[in-house]
Structure formats: C-alpha cells, structure tokens
Amino acid sequence: MKIISMIPARYSASRFPGKLMQDLGGKTVIRRTYEATVKTNLFDDVFVVTDSDIIYNEVVNNGGKAIMSIKEHECGSDRIAEAVEHLDVDVVVNVQGDEPFTDEESLKKLINVFKNDSKNEVDLASLMVHITNEDEINNPNTVKVVLDQSDFALYFSRSPIPYPRDKSVDVKYFKHKGVYAFRKQALLDFYNLPMKTLEASEKLEQLRYLEYGKRIKMVETDVEGIEIDTPEDLVRANKQWK
C-alpha cells in the first residue's frame, strides 16, 4: 500500500492572511508543518499543494517538495484531488498546513484504519477529540461529529450535536480535527461531484462525502495541538514551541 501525505496550503486566509508564512520558532509555519510531517517517517512521500508562488518557493527553496495547483479551488480536498489524479498512490493523508504540531501517533492510527480494512468498507478516516467545555461545544467554529456504533460519522455540524434536550443523558461530544486519510478513488469522486445543500449550508466539505454515501471512519485522539487560525493562536504556538 503506497501512502503519501499532502499538505494543502493557501496564502490568503480570511481570519489571518499569510499565516503560513509567519515565524514559528525561527522558521515559517508551513516549513514547520512540512518538516514535522516528514519526520514521522510514515509516508512514502510528502508534498505541499498550493496556489501561491510564495509558499511554493518557501518549501522548494528549503529542500521540500511542492506542487502548484492548476485551477482555483474552494477547499483542500479539491486541491489535493487535482494533485494526486495522476500519481500512483493508494491512500492520501491530508495534514493541515496550519497545524505544525503534527502528532505521529494520531497519523499512525489513521493509516492503520486502511491497513486493517480488509473488506474495503472505509472511504475516509479522520480524527476527533473528546470535548467537555460548553463554550467550545456551542462555538460554531468548533465542528462537532456524531457517530454510529462502529465509529462511522453520521453527521458533522457547527451546531451542538446531539442537541441536549434531555440533560440527564450522558452524551459525549467530539470535536472534528481536519486531518483526513482518503482512498484515492474517494478523493477523485469528491472532485467530480457537485456541492449539495448540506455542505453549502454548513460550509463543511466533509458533508459532501456523507451526502454522496461515502463512509468516514472516525478515530479518537487525545492530542489537541494548536491550529493557527488567528494571531493569538500564533502567540500560543510560539510559547509552546519554546
């Protein structure tokens, strides 16, 4: 099984433009993410996929591998699908460019989902973290996921799901972390299928997979890490790096 990692990387970000080129402990965020992913030794190859000459040059000029997107893309899955279409690969792991604290054990759990999937029941695998803080549960920037009894995703939402109508029920809430592992065919299918209403409403690309019947196996991790979405996140990341 050939397994590679793709790191989708846009220069413009609505909440923190240019965040991937910000300094984190003496190197840019995107270099830190790329180097951490390579260092896991879990992948046959690692690429940054970008629409930005600035990011492309930053990676390549420092010894890394990068692919320039040919088309404009709305989401990371589309960007990765275009890049892998003609590559000989079985499984693609999407590591977010703004998560430089890549956790080797969590990525290994994702890869093992496919190594143990002898019946080919899994189209995607992704990570989730148990959360208990009510502010986080109710925060629309925190994406929640609910599961069936086999840990396949039933739905993702920015709303608190399930809704706690009966407060006496002991419900576990899970935050979705945007790290995915895909079968190549699932990615290509996604790329060629139009957006439907659930994805358009919630602005969550993973809902397109569910709307078209793809199966997403969720894997729990206790590693939260720091996703750099704001300047304040970058300050926290630099403190953690030190």
UniProtKB/TrEMBL annotation:
It catalyses: 3-deoxy-alpha-D-manno-oct-2-ulosonate + CTP = CMP-3-deoxy-beta-D-manno-octulosonate + diphosphate. Coiled coil: none annotated. The keyword Acetylation does not apply. Pfam families: CTP_transf_3. Its EC number is 2.7.7.38. GO terms for molecular function: 3-deoxy-manno-octulosonate cytidylyltransferase activity. One of its GO terms (cellular component) is cytosol. Belongs to the KdsB family. Activates KDO (a required 8-carbon sugar) for incorporation into bacterial lipopolysaccharide in Gram-negative bacteria. This is 3-deoxy-manno-octulosonate cytidylyltransferase. It comes from Neotamlana laminarinivorans.
